[in-house]
Design goal:
The chain has 118 residues and is mainly β. The chain contains no helices and eleven strands. Strands 2, 4, 5, 6, 9, 10 and 11 form a seven-stranded mixed beta sheet that branches. Strands 1-3-8-7 form a four-stranded antiparallel beta sheet, with no helix packed on it. It is globular and about 40 Å long. The relative contact order is 0.32.
Length: 118
């Protein structure tokens, strides 16, 4: 079993920054891949970014150049640095983890709210 605990959400004005953290516990192999999804009100949950144990990164065009995903394996923690935030980034952000990229959604955190006001 893997437990994922997110932190760092909050409210900011457009153009501001936030850093989300996701601390994992459990067998290391079960969170070889970690990532972030988000769900805005009235919209489907969408993929934001993912990172492997070795640091390979996968992300979507809408966040390229603004969001940076990283991880500290010694602390079993993944981060999402979000800069130049836009109102459309408002969503609940979920941390996910799995042993492979295909199974990365096996485990979910409780979610953290990010609200960006214009």
């Amino acid at each position: 079993q893997v437990q994922l605990v997110e932190s760092g959400g909050g409210s900011v004005q457009a153009g501001g920054s936030l850093r989300l953290s996701c601390a994992a516990s459990g067998r290391t192999s079960t969170y070889y891949f970690m990532g972030w999804f988000r769900q805005a009100p009235g919209k489907e949950r969408e993929f934001v970014a993912a990172i492997s144990w070795s640091g390979a990164i996968y992300d979507v065009d809408s966040v390229k150049g603004r969001f940076t995903i990283s991880r500290d394996n010694a602390k079993n923690t993944m981060y999402l640095q979000m800069n130049s935030l836009k109102p459309e980034d408002t969503a609940v952000y979920y941390c996910v983890a799995g042993g492979t990229l295909a199974t990365m959604r096996n485990y979910w955190g409780q979610g953290t709210q990010v609200t960006v006001s214009s």
